[in-house]
Amino acid sequence: MDMKESFKSIIDGNQPVLVDFHATWCGPCKAQAPILKELAPEIKDKARIIKIDVDKNQALAQQYQVRSVPTLILFKGGQSVWRHSGVASKQQLLDVMKPHM
């Protein structure tokens, strides 16, 4: 199964999926990572958080027009319902995700 196939099956579900498009060389991405780690126990199994390395998944990054990292996209039922470029706080992410959970 190729990456796009599995990504599509992940975001097509009923569960909201927060996707962190990031890069290993990106400073702000390093700042975003611990925020996502803190967020995970609070959302438990009501939503998923996945990280996509834009350098390893360029086609996917292009498909979603990710021009800067980090870019966070919240998917629900395969549709992008929210998008943010730059570091987002835990509270900001919770506020955005709650209505979709």
Record the SSE blueprint.
Layout: H1 3-11, E1 17-22, H2 27-43, E2 48-53, H3 58-63, E3 71-76, E4 79-85, H4 90-97
Parallel strand pairs: 1-2
Antiparallel strand pairs: 1-3, 3-4
Please tell me about this protein's structure:
It is a single chain. By secondary structure, this protein is an alpha+beta fold. The protein has four helices and four strands; from the N terminus they run αβαβαββα. It has helices spanning 3-11, 27-43, 58-63, 90-97; strands at 17-22, 48-53, 71-76, 79-85. The longest helix has 17 residues, at 27-43.
CATH superfamily, please? Glutaredoxin
How helix-rich are the residues, as a percent range? Answer: 25-40%
CATH topology: Glutaredoxin
Low-confidence stretches: none
| Number of distinct helices | 4
The CA-CA distance between the termini, in Å, is 28 Å
Count of extended strands:
4
What is the total domain count? 1
What structural class results from the helix and strand content?
alpha+beta
Explain briefly what this protein structure is.
This protein is α+β, with helices and mostly antiparallel strands and 101 residues long.
Task: List the keywords.
101 residues, alpha+beta, Glutaredoxin, 4-stranded mixed beta sheet
